[in-house]
Write a structure and sequence with these properties.
With 178 residues, this protein is an alpha+beta fold. It contains three helices and eleven strands; from the N terminus they run βββαβββββαβαββ. The chain has helices at 36-43, 84-97, 119-141; strands at 2-6, 12-16, 28-29, 46-48, 50-51, 56-57, 63-65, 68-71, 106-111, 148-152, 172-177. The strands form four sheets. It has a five-stranded mixed sheet. The protein is globular, with a radius of gyration of 19 Å.
């Protein structure tokens, strides 16, 4: 994506904006960081406003922040099968999704992969991982499948572009759908 800015002299400044890798707005939650309260807070949509030290900037039309939480749910190499540690984390996720504050919302479950393997393979693997998470939440905890939409992102949104094979690049992101 390129943004063009005309100047008074007629010269046009062009700034190239890279679409990937994507810097995450939220941290990747791991192990004991995955708590019911933290997930409920992260996934509950709320007002989105920009604040600075002495100026408050408001948008013309109020917008709501979309809830999102990136979780370090690990998989064996080339597998979409959940580990026992991943299942324990998803048990916490299920309790959060069943909480009163989140009961009215639907969620996307985005699977991610690191760049090892081809792009097509990683897209299929990340889709299978997202579906594995949805299957677990629906089958084990009774979360209605129509509240969960599995989406494979492949290797397109690395959380740690400096270390492409880092575990946080093989994650699951849950986002609140509006």
């Amino acid at each position: 994506m390129k943004m063009r800015f005309p100047t008074r002299s007629g010269v046009v400044l062009t700034i190239a904006a890279m679409l990937a890798p994507v810097a995450l707005a939220q941290p990747v939650l791991r192990g004991s960081e995955i708590t019911e309260d933290r997930l409920i807070d992260a996934l509950t949509p709320g007002p989105d406003e920009v604040r600075t030290r002495s100026i408050r900037v408001e948008r013309e039309a109020p917008t709501a922040k979309k809830g999102a939480a990136s979780l370090l749910i690990t998989f064996e190499t080339n597998s979409a099968r959940l580990s026992s540690a991943a299942e324990r984390s998803l048990d916490v996720v299920a309790r959060a999704l069943q909480a009163d504050r989140l009961a009215a919302f639907n969620f996307s479950v985005e699977g991610h992969a690191d760049p090892r393997g081809g792009a097509d393979y990683n897209l299929r693997l990340s889709q299978a991982r997202a579906e594995s998470v949805v299957d677990y939440l629906a089958g084990r905890h009774g979360i209605p499948r129509d509240r969960l939409r599995p989406i494979g992102k492949g290797q397109t949104e690395l959380a740690n572009p400096g270390r492409p094979t880092a575990p946080e690049n093989r994650r699951v992101t849950i986002k609140t759908l509006q």
